[in-house]
C-alpha cells in the first residue's frame, strides 16, 4: 500500500497531527484534495511517502517508528479543523509579545496565564489578559 502523509506539529506541544492518503496505485498531485495545498501553503506541512502492508495507520507505524504517537486523520476537513484550533491558541511566544506590548502601553499582564486558554478570535479574551489598574482580578 502506498501512503502520502502530511504532518503538522502543534505549537504549544510536541504532538503531531497527520493526514494520510492511501492507495494501491501511485498517488499524483491531482489525487490530493485542494485543501491540502492550502494548508501546506499556510502552515508548511512536512510530507512523507511510505509503503506498508495495508491502509491502516498501524501498518505505517509498524513500518517506521517515526510515525508512532502521531494523531491520524483520514478526513482532510477534520485535519484542517485540528490545525486551525491549534493556531487559535496562544503559545508561549505570544505571551512574550504581550508582555512587551503591555509594558509599552503601561498595562500589567496577569501572572496566572497559561498557553491555550485564550482564543485569538475574541477581543474579550485578549482584554481579559490585562489588568488596567495593575491588580489581578480574583
Task: Write a concise synopsis of the structure shown.
With 138 residues, this protein is an alpha+beta fold. 35% of the residues lie in helices and 21% in strands. The protein is built from 5 helices and 6 strands.
Global shape: elongated
Main pleated sheet: 4 strands, mixed
Nearest-integer average pLDDT: 81
N-to-C SSE series? EEHEHEHHEHE
Overall helicity: 25-40%
- Compute the CA-based radius of gyration: 20 Å
Task: Give the distance, in angstroms, between the N- and C-terminal Cα atoms.
Answer: 57 Å
Helix-and-strand structural type: alpha+beta
Strand order of the largest sheet: 3-1-2-4
Number of contiguous helices: 5
Assembly type: single chain
Tell me the fraction of residues in β-strands, as a range.
15-25%
Flag low-confidence runs: 116-127, 131-138
Notes on the protein architecture:
The chain is of the alpha+beta class and 138 residues long. Helix content is 35%, strand content 21%. It has five helices and six strands; from the N terminus they run ββαβαβααβαβ. The chain has helices spanning 34-43, 57-63, 76-87, 92-105, 123-127; strands at 2-9, 16-23, 46-51, 71-73, 108-109, 130-131. The strands form two sheets. A four-stranded mixed beta sheet has the order 3-1-2-4, sandwiched between helices. The chain has a two-stranded antiparallel sheet with strand order 5-6. Strand 1 (2-9) and strand 2 form a beta hairpin. The longest helix is centred in the C-terminal third of the chain and has 14 residues, at 92-105. The radius of gyration is 20 Å and the shape is elongated. Mean pLDDT is 81; it is low at 116-127 and 131-138.
Amino acid at each position: 500500500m502506498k501512503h502520502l502523509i502530511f504532518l503538522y506539529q502543534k505549537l504549544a506541544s510536541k504532538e503531531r497531527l497527520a493526514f494520510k492518503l492511501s492507495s494501491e496505485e501511485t498517488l499524483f498531485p491531482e489525487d490530493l484534495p485542494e485543501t491540502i495545498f492550502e494548508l501546506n501553503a499556510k502552515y508548511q506541512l512536512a510530507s512523507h511517502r511510505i509503503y506498508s502492508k495495508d491502509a491502516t495507520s498501524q501498518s505505517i507505524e509498524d513500518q517506521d517508528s517515526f510515525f508512532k504517537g502521531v494523531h491520524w486523520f483520514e478526513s482532510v476537513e477534520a485535519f484542517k479543523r485540528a490545525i486551525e484550533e491549534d493556531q487559535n491558541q496562544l503559545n508561549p511566544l505570544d505571551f512574550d509579545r504581550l508582555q512587551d506590548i503591555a509594558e509599552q502601553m503601561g498595562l500589567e499582564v496577569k501572572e496566572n496565564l497559561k498557553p491555550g486558554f485564550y482564543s485569538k478570535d475574541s477581543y474579550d479574551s485578549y482584554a481579559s489578559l490585562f489588568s488596567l489598574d495593575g491588580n489581578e482580578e480574583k
